[in-house]
Amino acid sequence: MPVITNINDLKRLYQRRVPRMFYDYAESGSWTEQTFRENTSDFDQIRLRQRVAVDMTGRSTATQMIGEDVAMPVALAPVGLTGMQHADGEMKAAKAAEDFGVPFTLSTMSINSIEDVASATTKPFWFQLYTMKDTDYVSRLIQRAKDAKCSALVITLDLQILGQRHKDLKNGLSAPPKLTPSTLLNLATKWGWLAGMARAHRREFGNIVGHVEGISDASSLGAWTAEQFDPSLDWGKIEKLMNEWGGKVILKGILDAEDAKMAAKLGADAIVVSNHGGRQLDGALSSIRMLPEILDAVGDQVEVHLDSGIRSGQDVLKAMAMGAKGTYIGRAFVYGLGAMGQAGVTSALEVIHKELDTTMALCGERSIDGLNRDNLLVPQGFGGRWA
To answer: Which of 201, 211, 276, 353 is catalytic?
Structure first.
């Protein structure tokens, strides 16, 4: 195994080993990709306050997210097509997360199905729900998540209409990939990936194929999916979904203080400050920049998590010190998965954990609960209101 010291080491391996269309799927945003870039660059504006002569023995990164014990305040975010990044990708990522002691969130648009992941794990995972026009399908999907003993439902709110992602359109993104001349040329250089996919449990969307009438191939699946995201989603429908689930609910895609207040009013267990990794509304502010305003708006009414832009343990610490109660990594674990499968996801988690633990020590803190704004040097107006 190569020496991995940071997430970018995994990213370089990932780019070499995975077909271009799936690399581009992960490593891109919508339109000009401004928000995609600023999700990470805005973390760089926040500095850390070094402290010395503090007893650093007995440190722990353990805490809780929505009442569940976690080894560190990091969950694996829902990422579509994960099983195209590496054969049986969702199953392997879920096992790595379980072994490490952090939550795994399965996407509706996964390759491995809910049942596949449940068969590969021994502890409950979280399930992410996209709201679809086909309410019967959504109800059956929720029941399948219940049957799999999922411990939380993560409802994504910011994909009523699909943001345009230029690279996906130009690459003809599909699962399995369409065999065009350019795709075949690229696949010819990815023998390791091809060998793995030949042995994979699935190569299509496992939560959809076989569960929706009339879907038998990639073209029928694509047509169905393109028409299914529900543009009429509103708070009333969200409340009905929460009631139908009846368990812990996390509302993901909050980027406005008023929306945060509405989510808290509905009784969500947590909200996720997220702009979908910069893949929806390009030009929106980064998640870390919006975090202070949202925290000010909801206080302790609801647990606030942060997604989009985290690439290191230092980023995790910055989000937690700003007031978040948990964070999510998407691209960071996908890099590891594409690079080295389950071992790569474990490597990504180890890198982030070591960075978090070391940075916490050098900031003079022994526990996650001790982190606060005093650990940071934040530019004036960083989280302020824009005219």
So the answer is: 276
Neighbours of 85 (CB within 10 A): 30
Q: Using CA atoms, how far apart are residues 249 and 67, in angstroms rounded to an integer?
A: 12
Q: Distance between CA 367 and CA 56 in Å, rounded?
A: 10
pLDDT score recorded for residue 384:
73
Residue 87 makes CB contacts below 8 A (sequence gap 6+) with: 193, 196, 197, 199, 200, 341
Report the greatest alpha carbon distance in the chain. Answer: 67
Report residues of the chain scoring pLDDT below 50: none
User: 30 and 281 in contact (C-beta within 8 Å)?
Assistant: yes
Of residues 333, 83, 86, the one with CA closest to residue 195: 86
What is the DSSP track for 77-95?
PP-TTHHHHSTTHHHHHHH
User: Is there a catalytic annotation at residue 276?
Assistant: yes
Average pLDDT, whole number, for the chain? 95
| Distance of alpha carbon 308 from alpha carbon 278, whole angstroms | 7
Instruction: Give the integer Cα–Cα distance in Å for 75 and 97.
Output: 8
The per-residue pLDDT for 179 is 83
Question: What is the rounded CA–CA span in Å between residue 134 and residue 148?
Answer: 21
Q: Which DSSP string corresponds to 286-306?
A: PHHHHHHHHHHHHTTSSEEEE
Instruction: For helices 331-362 and 7-17, give the axis angle rounded to 10 degrees.
Output: 170
**Summary count for the chain: helices (H), strands (E):** 16, 12
Q: List CB contacts of 28: < 8 A, sequence separation 6 or more.
A: 36, 165, 166, 167, 168, 279
Q: Are 319 and 66 in contact (CB under 8 A)?
A: no
CA distance 22 to 219: 18
